[in-house]
Design goal:
Two copies of one chain form a homodimer.
Chain A: E1 17-20, H1 24-36, E2 42-45, H2 49-57, E3 63-64, H3 67-73, E4 76-79, H4 86-93, E5 102-105, H5 111-121, E6 128-129, E7 131-133, E8 154-157, H6 165-177, E9 181-184, H7 187-214, H8 218-224, H9 227-233, H10 240-249, H11 251-273, H12 277-298
Parallel strand pairs in A: 1-2, 1-4, 2-3, 4-5, 5-6, 8-9
Antiparallel strand pairs in A: 7-8
Chain lengths: ~300, ~300
């Protein structure tokens, strides 16, 4: 809590880290870096002065700076803003991007960000390491940030052939220092997998919640909704702005996965139409067994 | 824990309650009745001797009996079995059903059970009070039973015009004694509302989980699935047998609701296809606001 009163001098060997967007994701990265001792000074950058002030009070960052100031000092820049803001930030950063400085991000989609980085950074593209920590919570903002958010969680990096190997290794080491498991895959693979396990569930939960909310008798429905409803719809409460950006950025993969889920729905619906006990049993049992196995393997209930 | 060693004599004014199926639902009803002092002796009936023995050890029931024995002594019979077993039980109970004895149930569907009760009980149908506690948990069996399961939860009763008003009042009072809020509606209304807030979410969650599990790269998908996936799929781990019965028993309402959810999905998909930012925002925002309002009203997160 007193760190910002006496900003430490840059420690030898420890990089100065600038974090753009000090909310749950960026703030937790800051907290975890500080806990691991892997960062020297931590600079916060953002649109909202009140958020930056709060992040400083909480000891997440050492000081708040403009993007231009931060670019003069930072060795590593983490972009932890909504996906829609990343391209503009990269364009603003490029002219003052010094050799050897690493940029990485925490965006939920990767093909669009890689393409934007390639277009805006040009021959400095190799300094950019695309990343995505698979972590989050219903809470937002620096108050929700915690050094343990990434502990035992997965972080995916999607390096391109021309990504600087040393920059990649340093970003991987920082995430591992935060307690995360790092997986590497192509940006295309990432987007297809995330469409499946994150974006389509949000699409379905939101579509369902919309239908219940718009029904003429929605009050009566919601009055009897229980814990199953609670779990199934929790993700639908997420930020509309953030999810609109994700759906648009990953539109092709989301629509392709959605088509496959619709085919699965058709299959169960046809079995139900036909009152085919064995087919319904088999379908539900495969889903139940897969979910129970996943729960036991991940130790998430 | 010692209750079963000295089975209490029937207490004056306190009904002898027989519970058929002493798992989570029936066992918790037993525990809550005992805690409220609203029951005299509690008799357990069931197919599995080991479950009944466990329920006795846990103090949920005072003794285990056959259905025939229980019908000689019970003043109130609660059917807490899977929905598919209720019609057979009613048929078996009818010949020995004494005047004034109340039968009630905890089944997840109501039109099919009301129809089965009418057909099997004939002119004794007025003694049957159809009910459905909206409570449950991932756990099953008597070990999971708890006196607090129904505390501040909703129980729906669906009396018919010829349901005995006194029997209805006694069942309502028992549930209120368990800490529940009791709502009354028609069986048809119940089935439509539950199709919406319980059965369709299970249909969607299971269809989605099946699709992920059957994908050629399901291992990779499941390796990166996070907390959103966890919440969205939790209900898909439920008993395939139980949910097959529910889907079949409430088939018409489930298919009708599912059709409306598909229309909502079409709407969001069309907005996404057209990259219509405003339409996507509006759709997601309505869903998010409705979910947040429900969460704040119910104090379920």
């Amino acid at each position: 809590m007193t760190a910002h009163r006496h900003p430490p001098a840059k420690q030898a060997g420890q990089p100065v880290v600038a974090i753009v967007g000090v909310g749950l994701i960026g703030g937790s990265f800051a907290a975890a870096l500080r806990a691991s001792g892997a960062a020297g000074r931590i600079i916060g950058v953002g649109r909202q002065p009140v958020t930056l002030a709060r992040a400083r009070e909480l000891g997440l960052i050492d000081q708040a700076q403009t993007l231009g100031q931060a670019m003069q000092e930072a060795d590593v820049v983490m972009l932890a803003t909504p996906v829609g803001a990343v391209a503009g930030l990269l364009a603003a950063m490029c002219p003052s991007l010094r050799p050897g400085v690493i940029i990485t991000d925490a965006g939920s989609t990767k093909q669009d960000i890689v393409q934007a980085a390639r277009e805006t950074l040009g021959d400095k593209f190799s300094q950019f390491v695309p990343g995505h920590p698979i972590a989050g919570a219903e809470q937002t903002g620096p108050e929700a940030a915690t050094a343990s958010l990434y502990h035992e969680r997965t972080v995916i990096v999607t390096p391109e052939a021309d990504t600087d190997p040393e920059a990649l290794a340093r970003v991987v080491a920082m995430w591992e220092g935060c307690g995360a498991r790092v997986m590497s895959m192509s940006a295309e693979r990432h987007d297809r997998v995330l469409a499946s396990v994150s974006h389509v569930p949000h699409f379905l939960s939101s579509s369902y919640m919309w239908q219940v909310a718009m029904a003429p008798d929605s009050d009566q429905r919601l009055a009897v909704a229980g814990t199953g409803f609670q779990d199934f719809t929790r993700i639908a409460a997420g930020s509309a702005e953030m999810w609109r950006d994700i759906f648009l950025a990953n539109r092709t993969a989301v629509l392709a996965e959605l088509d496959e889920v619709r085919q699965a729905m058709d299959r169960l619906e046809q079995a139900l139409q036909a009152a085919d006990h064995a087919a319904i049993d088999d379908f539900l049992e495969r889903a139940a067994v897969a979910r129970r196995f996943w729960g036991s393997r991940t130790r998430l209930p």
